[in-house]
Amino acid sequence: MPMLIVAGLCLLYLGWLVGKPYYVEYRRAQFRSRPFPPAWLTILRRRVPYYRLLPADLQAQLRGHMQVFIAEKDFIGCAGLEVNDEMRVTIAAQACLLILNRKTGYYPKLERILVYPGAFMVKKQEVDEAGVHSEYHDELAGESWGEGQVILSWEDAVDDARFFGDGRNVVIHEFAHQLDQEKGVATGAPILARAEHYRPWSEALGAEYLALRQQADAELDSLFDYYGAEHPAEFFAVVTEVFFEQPQEMATMHPELYRQLKNFYRVDPLSWR
């Protein structure tokens, strides 16, 4: 009898494993089909100007993705900040911009978004060329961890949404890292649709990354923030910001890079202007 009980429990567990993806997608479809709260729409229109640029079908898709995102992710206030719908909607809209028109798991490794009132301090370590370890504190507007969380400054998140078009957006930056981290360590090469896409991706982004490093060393003007020259993962996040915020400039000055990002994100921000 005990063996029968164990066997039954194992079958139930296997059934749960097989059925879980279907249940998750059913639940997400339910969230997407719900009427979008009017109060959220008011926040979206006021706080996130680019929403008005999107065609109607992408607006509807974005609203549906936001409802899933807000239902599944925990928003946690830090340093005394009390999270409200203004924050959830503003952050979710920018995060979900990156998953339009794409098969998505809604950032499957992400469990929570920690929100600080403003820039926050983090302790960092580095090793110099002589092998000497040192610790220092750095002030950040955002950070993406592979262990299930994104940390954001609310002040920067709302300002970057308001001034859409300047090539800087901390939410887009950190959620680009989340896409990159879906496969494990962020390398600047997120999961692409097909194996044959990796070579042209590597060639285009690798050449542009080296060019930015040279521009940074020589202190030459660049469309991209020099922060992208620190690591290929940072380069991917930086150029993602520019792709969504300054598509005309990127398409004109860096056409192959723009084409690779357009293929990956499956949207063309040039058409939204």
Automatic annotation (TrEMBL):
Signal peptide: none annotated. CDD domains: Peptidase_M90_mtfA. InterPro entries: MetalloPept_cat_dom_sf, MtfA_fam, MtfA_N. One of its GO terms (molecular function) is aminopeptidase activity. Pfam families: Peptidase_M90. SUPFAM superfamilies: Metalloproteases ('zincins'), catalytic domain. GO terms for cellular component: cytosol. It comes from the Bacteria. This is Zinc-dependent peptidase. It comes from Noviherbaspirillum sedimenti.
